[in-house]
Amino acid sequence: MNSLANPLFCASFCARKRNIFYSAFFSPYPPEILQQIRPPPTGKNAYFPETQIKESMMRYRSPEIRIHRILHFTFYILHFLLLACSCEKSGTEPPPPPPPNKPDTTSHNFTWTTYSFGDGNASILKDVCIINENDIWAVGEIHVLDSSGQYNPHNAVHWDGQKWELKKIPVKIFNTNSFIISTLQSVFAFAPNDVWTTDGGEVIRFNGQSWSEWKFLFDDLNDTTFGGIRQFWGSSNTDLWGVGKKGNIFYYDGINWQRIESGTHTNINDIWGVLDRATGQTTILAVVSDRYYVGEYRLLSIALNGIADTLNWTLSRRLHSTWFDINSPVFVSGSGLRVWKVHQWEEILIPNYFSTRVRGSALNNIFVVGAFGLCVHYNGSSWQTYEDLMMATGSFEGLAVSDNLMVTVGYVDNHDVLVMGRRN
Fold this sequence. Notes:
Elements: H1 7-24, H2 31-37, H3 50-60, H4 63-92, E1 110-115, E2 124-132, E3 135-145, E4 151-159, E5 164-167, E6 171-172, E7 179-180, E8 186-191, E9 194-198, E10 202-206, E11 211-216, E12 229-236, E13 239-244, E14 249-252, E15 257-259, E16 268-276, E17 281-288, E18 298-303, E19 306-309, E20 319-323, E21 331-334, E22 336-341, E23 344-348, E24 355-362, E25 365-370, E26 375-378, E27 383-385, E28 395-401, E29 405-412, E30 415-423
Antiparallel strand pairs: 1-30, 2-3, 3-4, 4-5, 6-7, 8-9, 9-10, 10-11, 12-13, 13-14, 14-15, 16-17, 17-18, 18-19, 20-21, 21-22, 22-23, 24-25, 25-26, 26-27, 28-29, 29-30
Helix pairs in contact: 1-4
C-alpha cells in the first residue's frame, strides 16, 4: 500500500509539518508586547503577584493588543485549514494515470546480406518461403555456367542455416514420362517435410527427402488454356489454395483438387489468408489486375461457396499483392501502398515505385518490396525505406517475413538476386 494512504503515517507527517511551520514563522505579537503580557518568571518556583496579573490582563484587553489577537487567531485558522487539506490530499489522492498507450514497435535495424547464384542468361528468383531460420526455400530459374561454358539450369536454392545450395526440382512434361528443369513460380511450406511448389501447371511436393509430382492440374480438368498457378496460400495441407493467370483459382482439400470459378479472366497475382483458430473461420483475399495493362482491378474474397468483390476497391490503381493479420487492417500493394481503415482506403506514402509484394509477421513488422530494389519496413509506428538496397535496374518479386528475418528475391540486370535481412 502507498505510504501516503496510511493514516498513521499521515498523522505523524502532519505533526512534523506543524512543528516546522511554527518554528519557521515569528509570533504576530511584537517583542515589546510579548514582554508586557508574558514576562518571564524568575527562579524555579517563580509566581506572578496578583497586581502584576491584573496589570497584564488590562494590557491584553487594550485596543492595541486586540488587533494582534485578531491577527493571531486568523493566522492559526488558516494554518489549521492548510494542514487539514494537506493531510486529506496526501491520504486520498489516487496515483497518477498511466501514460497514454503507444504503438507496439519493433526495430528498423537489420543487417543485410545479398546473394546471386546464376551466371546470367535471364536468371530470376520468383518466390521464397521461410520455414525457420535454418530452413528456407527460394524458387525460380537459375542458369549456371559449367566447365564447358554451357548453361546448367537449376530452379531452386535451399538455406540450411549455414549456406545456400542450388537445387534441381524435376517437372514432368504433360502426357509423357519425361522431366525437365523448368521455371518454378511459387513455393509454400507448412513444415520442413511439407513443402509445395509449381511451375504453373504441375504441383510438386517435398516430403523432407525428395520432390515428387503431386498433381498435374490441367490433366483431368481438361483445360490447358485457362492459365497456371502463380501463388499458393493455405492454412494446412488439407486446405491449400492456388491462384494464377487468367482468373485461375484451385483448391485442394487433402484428397481432391477442384477449380473454383472466379468470375474473371484477369490475372490473379496474389492470395493471402488468415485462420482464426478460436472460431475456425478463414478469411482469404486475392488480388486481381494485370501488372502491365490497364484493365480490371478487384480484391476478391474467396470461399468454397463463392467468390465476392470486397472492400470496395474503386480506385483506378493496379493491385499486385495483399497481406493482413487476424488483428490488423488489410494492406494492398501495387501502384502504391494502401491500407483499409474505417471503411475507406488510405494511401501510405512510400517511394513511387511499383510494389510487387507486401508481407508481415505482425502489425509491427511489415515489409513492402518492389521495382528497382524497393524495400520498406513498418515497425508499428513508422515506415522506413532502405536506400542501400535500391538498384538501377531489376526488381524484387518474392518476399517472406518472420519475426526476426526477412528474405526477398528477384532479379537485377539478367541475374537472380536474393537479399536476407536479419534483425539486430
